[in-house]
Specification:
two-stranded antiparallel ribbon, mainly alpha, two-stranded antiparallel sheet, Serine Threonine Protein Phosphatase 5, Tetratricopeptide repeat
Amino acid sequence: MIPPDSVTCPACGTPSAGNFCSGCGANLVRRACAHCQAELSPQARFCHRCGQPRGSAAPNAGASERKVWLVAGTVCVLLVAGIAYKVSSDTPQPPAPDMANVGSSVGGAANDGPAGSAPDISAMTPRERFDRLYNRIMRASERSDSAEVERFTPMALGAYQQLDTRDPDARYHAAVLQMQVGNFPAARALADTILQESPGHLFGYVIRATAARFQNDPATLARARRDFLSHYETEMRSKRVEYLEHQPVVEEFKREAEKGGR
């Protein structure tokens, strides 16, 4: 007999009562986001409205901020130029989406929403969500907005995990995000995957070299630069679209590799 106060488990469809599903053990308690009060599904790890991790506290502006910017400063030298290049090469220029302006109240003083609130991204595909969040984080890095970087990086990595397919460009962007939060082993693992799936891909060597620099690994750094240069001509003749979209990044890394400087 089904209890009168039962609910249908969103994970497996079993009618259950209480806090957990009797069929699969999923949490049945609906929760609200601590930041914007949006209702969250029981399985949600991040808020679909503001992007905060479920149950997270306000960003810490102390040691974690210094850690983020130690990495982000150098990463942005290599990567923000690529975003600017891609945006400037698109014609006609579209207006900046709301997702790129979360730091200010949308609509001016008359808007009663919480400061820094983000639009609902639940209707986007996982790739659209990942790309929008990545570009937003890179723009925040460029303007030294550490709070926004810390706020949206976990959400972007969550969107990456939901991708059905992951091409070298998506893996490259995920590696950048991992390095921004200091997870260099994860970034290097992504570089290894890129090179396993696409031998000689230049992004694999860029990631390896950048991670090695932060980990004070001169041998790996030098080897990654040599490998990059040895594959550069062949790879550029392939005219991969990701090289064209990140042309300033690739060319800047080539100059750096040729100099051999740290």
